[in-house]
Amino acid sequence: MAAAIDWLDAYRSRDLDTLMSLFGDEAILECTCCVSETVVGKEPLRAFWPERFKDCGVSIEVHDLVPESDGASISYIARDELVMATLKLAPDGKIAFMRWGRPPMLSEKPLDAPIDEEFPFFVLERIDGIYRDLLSPFGSLNEALSNVKNSPPGEYAILHLGEIVWPQR
What's the superkingdom here (predicted)? Predict the structure, then answer.
């Protein structure tokens, strides 16, 4: 839980060096706050945060902090909106994965949504060191791979449940 609090403190004080010290070298950030993008690696993260500092409100009020087996979720209110950050930590205590944005609301998801829609696969293209969502989500890894094979040459990845599942590292 300390990592979540440390992250929020560094974010709201706009302390880039402290913020970067919390992330592992291969950290993945899935952002749905102001932009929809996935950032992979420390240097792309360093380029990502200054713009997000501009989006940060003057006042951030902690709403909830929930410990998880491999990290924590922290929600806060900024500019009258609820924002949630879910952090997954590596064994060294650094942030390995972070999902950041509006928390999912039950009312936004249809009650009869099939599993494939609930846990989609996303094709990402790496542009200037930052992975960006290409298209609508896919219901299976095979559908996503087929899309990559039919795409123009480029650097692609497939994201599922917050992790890069292709190419395998």
Answer: Bacteria
